[in-house]
Amino acid sequence: MKLLDLFCCEGGAGTGYARAGFEVTGVDIEDRSERYPFTFVQADALAVLDDLDFVGQFDAIHASPPCQSYSAAFKHLATPQPMLIDPVRERLIRIGKPWIIENVEGAPLGAQDDLFGSYGALLCGTSFGLRVYRHRLFEASFPVTGTVCAHTWPAMNPHNVAGRERIYAEHGRSDPEKVWAAEMGVEWMSRHGARESIPPVFTKHLGRQLLAQIEAVAA
After folding, report:
1. Domain span including residue 28
2. CATH assignment at residue 37
3. For residue 187, what is the enclosing H or E element?
4. Dist CA 43 CA 50 (whole Å)
5. Angle CA 97–30–200, to nearest 5
6. Residue 131 has pLDDT above 50, yes or no
7. Total H helices, total E strands in the chain
8. How is residue 25 annotated by DSSP?
9. CA–CA separation, 97 vs 77, rounded Å?
10. Where does residue 210 rank: exposed (0-12), middle (13-18), buried (19+ CB within 10 A)?
11. Which helix (H) or strand (E) holds 111?
């Protein structure tokens, strides 16, 4: 099965889908070819979604639109990023392929299934045995199963004092971002890539459900 990974950055989501069994192609408006682990196309994601001949080659689509304008942690930014979830969702629905959209808490995505035909899930790193939280929302075109948090405090996080101290206590005064990236499972990434990434275990979990959905529809 072929999956299109939109706004792919350096391949956190794509790696999870590959481990679930997909052949992955990534798309990003910036050149990510040096670090993205799979086939890469530099292009605008919305333009790609409008190219029906191109998207027709794929069995499913994942999208991770820019999160900064949806996140409370980035409200101070002088230049907010575009809010693309709605136009992405509209195009995905029109295309008709199975799809998943990922974003941060606070984004207009479903955190769980509802009575109106929307499907969503919240995933947490601690549910998979990671020492990071990295809460992310995933809305899908089909029912998806989320996870239950198993928090301990503090989580590893180089971007706050308590999280850094946990890293220093276990690993000494080495680069905390490298330790954190390795804990998420994205150790090949740049600092910027890891900061924007999700743990691949998230999309491995969802990718298996996506494959099951595709196979059920085809049966």
Report:
1. 2-218
2. 3.40.50
3. none
4. 12
5. 55
6. yes
7. 8, 7
8. E
9. 35
10. buried
11. none
- Higher confidence at residue 172 or residue 38? 38
**% of the chain at pLDDT higher than 90:** 75
Which residues lie across from 123 on neighbouring strands?
A: 136
Q: pLDDT for 195-217, tens place per residue?
A: 999 999 999 999 999 999 999 99
DSSP 142-172: S----------SSPP-TTSHHHHHHHHHHH-
CA-nearest of 157, 138, 158 to 147 is 138
pTM here?
0.90
Number of domains in the chain: 1
**Polymer length in residues for the chain:** 219
Both tokens of 48, joined, read: 């790609």
Amino acid at 17: Y
User: In whole angstroms, what is the distance from residue 85 CA to residue 75 CA?
Assistant: 17
Both tokens assigned to 142 = 């089909």
